[in-house]
Design brief:
The strands form four sheets. Strands 3-7-6 form a three-stranded antiparallel beta sheet, with no helix packed on it. Strands 8-5-10 form a three-stranded antiparallel beta sheet, with no helix packed on it. A two-stranded antiparallel ribbon has the order 1-2. It is of the alpha+beta class and 140 residues long. The chain has three helices and ten strands. The chain is globular.
Length: 140
C-alpha cells in the first residue's frame, strides 16, 4: 500500500495515528515510502526518516497546546483544512510536564481564553501547503 492510499483509508472520523520518531523506521508499510525522503528542500538535508515523526490525523483530531523539546516542526496538509495557533517565544503559557512524555511540554492554561488567544498567530493550512513551526514555539 502506498502513502496516498493509506491517507484515503484513514477517513474514519474517530481515529488518529501517530508514529513517534523512535518507532518510525519499524513501520514497514509507511517508512518505506519515506526511506529516501530528501529534507534538503527545507534546509534540513542532514536529517533522514530515522529522525522524523509522522502524524496522520482524521478530521477533528488535535494535540493539546504544547511546545516541543526537539527541533522544528513541518506540517503538510494533505486534505481538508487545519487552523493553527502559534505563540512567539516571549509568551509564557504556564508549562507543565505530562508523565512519561519526554519530548513535549504542555500548557497548564486555557489557550482559548480571550486574553491568551489574543496574542496567538492564527494560520489556516490548506491542502498542498506546509507550515514551519520553529523550535520551542507553543502551538495548538
Amino acid at each position: 500500500m502506498n502513502f496516498v492510499n493509506f491517507c484515503v483509508l484513514i477517513k474514519i472520523k474517530e481515529k488518529f495515528y501517530y508514529a513517534a520518531y523512535n518507532h518510525f523506521i519499524s513501520l514497514d508499510k509507511i517508512s518505506t515510502q519515506f526511506k529516501d525522503f530528501d529534507w534538503g528542500w527545507v534546509g534540513l538535508g542532514h536529517l533522514s526518516s530515522a529522525q522524523s515523526t509522522l502524524w496522520i490525523g482524521s478530521e477533528g483530531s488535535f494535540t493539546p497546546c504544547h511546545k516541543d523539546s526537539y527541533g522544528c516542526n513541518l506540517h503538510a496538509q494533505i486534505s481538508g483544512k487545519k487552523e493553527w495557533l502559534l505563540w512567539l517565544l516571549i509568551f509564557d503559557l504556564g508549562p507543565t510536564r505530562v508523565p512519561y512524555e519526554e519530548s513535549s511540554t504542555f500548557t497548564s492554561i486555557d489557550v482559548l481564553h480571550q486574553d491568551t488567544i489574543a496574542h496567538a498567530i492564527r494560520i489556516v493550512v490548506e491542502p498542498g501547503e506546509v507550515i514551519f513551526i520553529p523550535k520551542h514555539w507553543w502551538h495548538f
